[in-house]
Write a structure and sequence with these properties.
The chain has 14 helices and two strands, in the order H-E-E-H-H-H-H-H-H-H-H-H-H-H-H-H. By secondary structure, it is an all-alpha fold. The chain has one domain. The chain has a two-stranded antiparallel ribbon with strand order 1-2. Strand 1 and strand 2 form a beta hairpin. Helix 9 crosses helix 14. It is globular, with a radius of gyration of 26 Å. Bound molecules: zinc ion (ZN). Zinc ion (ZN) binds next to loops.
Amino acid sequence: MANDTQSNTTTIKCLNCGTEFQGNFCPECGQAAETGRFTMKFIYENLLAAFISKDGGIWFTLKNLFIRPGEMIVEILKGKRRSYFSPFPMLFFTLTVLILLFSITGSREDIKSIEQEIIKAEKDGKTELVVNGSSTEKGRSEFFKLIGHTITFYNNHYTAVTMLTIPLFLFVTRAWYGKTNRKRYYRAEYLIAIAYSMVMVVLYRCLISLMYMFSRNVSDSMSNFVPLVIVAALTACFRKMLGFSITKTAWRSILALVLYYIILGIVLLSILILVFLIVYVPIIKQKNGV
Ligand SMILES: [Zn+2]
């Protein structure tokens, strides 16, 4: 078998999965036959491809997400996968950018000032405690501390909190986007659209964080529009998939978001009260008993 065109006829053992094959790509796992050592050129091309490639690049996906979000998601659900950057890695990526922006622009300082206010309020509560000596005042100050802890937790774990509330978004969208759509689409398919709409919301938060460098007031007032942006993002991502009109999708998205806030509020309050009853009340009782 001495052949002069060796590339196509020689059998190669795939270095990724071990399959023996002929040709340029492994038929089992798709890895290329040629695998040289890593070079800086490879790293550079790889990074560049991740951002600007039309074949699953971040920039191409973002462009489509903002120009034709509904169409893009329908395409992805129907099977056009390679062209677009996967939704959850994309969400992680944008959240990382947001966290970086938090520390670069110092927009987190604003949150720190809220904490300071709470600590101050707590101290005021304590001075009252000295004057009155009542246990309710002390309870109130402990409660302030707890709210402070909750806010700190929320900010330190922004990524985790966002990811944790995704199942809640799944629940509220499935509750409001119609029975036929609930039957037509899997939960996972709803999650794809939710993840991409979250990317849009996180990017808006990035913009708020950037704006903080130029004008604190503009940045603050932009924060008020976050719920509106969430509704807009959900509407843009879900409309085509649901087959609703823009008005109907927007209206249902508002109802879904209201339900989301109600549930989130109840959950947070329950956790807060539970922690208060389990951790703080016994301490207060003990202190008062002595
Ligand atoms: Zn292989």
